Amino acid sequence: MISLTKPITIPTHSKPKSLIHYYSRPTRINIVGAEAVDYTYPGGGMGVHTGRDPNVKKPAWLRQKAPQGRAQCPNIGECWNGGGDGIATATIMLLGDTCTRGCRFCAVKTSRNPSPPDPMEPENTAKAIASWGVDYIVLTSVDRDDLPDGGSGHFACTVEAMKSLSPDIMVECLTSDFRGDLNAVTSLVHSGLDVFAHNVETVKRLQRIVRDPRAGYEQSLSVLKHAKLCKEGMITKTSIMLGLGESDEEVKEAMADLRAIDVDILTLGQYLQPTPLHLTVKEYVTPEKFTFWKDYGESIGFRYVASGPLVRSSYRAGELFVKTMVREKNIFSTTGS
Predict the structure, then answer these.
(1) Can you give the residue range of the structural domain that contains 101?
(2) For residues 266 and 297, is the Cβ–Cβ distance under 8 A?
(3) 63 part of a folded domain
């Protein structure tokens, strides 16, 4: 993801330095706003929820050469080249690179008081994107609990600026929960975006283990439900990580809860531990099981499900949106209604 404070071209740089020496000594991580928990990683040992599990080995289907470029994403070539559908997709991170929350699966740096947003970011982002010639943009951000509206207004200004310069571009906003502030959700939904996305991340039982205490399952469902209800035709989307210890029944329960509030698009991917300080991978889910979840999700009413070990919440976002529209158009043409 790229955070823009002025128009830029897509940058590249070398791989990050090795973390081997960093983890050769005990390390403590502070989870901003979380309960007082010791996350010390004692040189390779297992914590209650962290550390490497020597009994869980990375399988062959996840062993591939690390990608080059700033995003370090295994799917970056498909997004920028448009894959088989010719839809080029890019993901942009707004509101800086420092989060006010500390979810245990995420490696983004945290602070109670991040730098204030750049007031020129919406305009500069829109100008940069207009020059790239991409078809579909995903705007996302860190959590900004320090801002009165959680950053919703900044998102909305960016969408409006983008649509002004590139009226035909499709825009998805992958947002925080705005602390459950439904007015913040409303203002963003009415800014001109095409898809409202917010991730529930995991099944209900694992929420407090996986996410910051200020996040929550019911709060996320409330945000997604409101986005759907406050503007007719709004497409909603969410994502679930697998491999954190969830059961099949819990995944089905989460899917049922999402369909009950009419979420349209679901992505499911393998949780990959960023460092030994983060949540332990409990299971590497097989490609066949991901295929099962795709079929199951679509059978219960999701308009599209992307499910695979390397799928991420913004994976082939343009493809998902376009395929959904084409499918509905074909149904309309066939039925004539």
Answers:
(1) 75-335
(2) yes
(3) no
**CB contact at 8 A, 94 and 141:** yes
In a domain, 64, yes or no: no
52 contacts: CB under 8 Å, gap ≥ 6: 44, 46, 273, 276, 280
Known binding-site residue numbers for [4Fe-4S] cluster: 73, 79, 99, 103, 106, 314
Question: What integer pLDDT is reported at residue 317 of this predicted model?
Answer: 62
Average pLDDT, the chain: 79
Provide the CATH number for the domain around residue 210: 3.20.20.70
Please enumerate, by residue number, every residue annotated as part of a binding site.
73, 79, 99, 103, 106, 314
Q: What confidence score (pLDDT) does residue 322 get?
A: 61
Contact indicator for 106, 151 with CB cutoff of 8 Å = no
Q: Is the pLDDT of residue 166 over 90?
A: yes
Q: What is the pLDDT of residues 72-89, one digit of tens each?
A: 344 444 433 444 555 677
pLDDT digits (tens, 9 = 90+) for 288-311: 999 999 999 999 999 989 999 988
- 85-89, 180-184, 332-336: range with lowest mean pLDDT: 332-336
Residue 292 CB partners (closer than 8 Å, separation 6+):
none
**Distance between CA 63 and CA 270 in Å, rounded?**
13
Q: What is the pLDDT of residue 71?
A: 35
Please name the residue that has the structure tokens 């943009």. 137
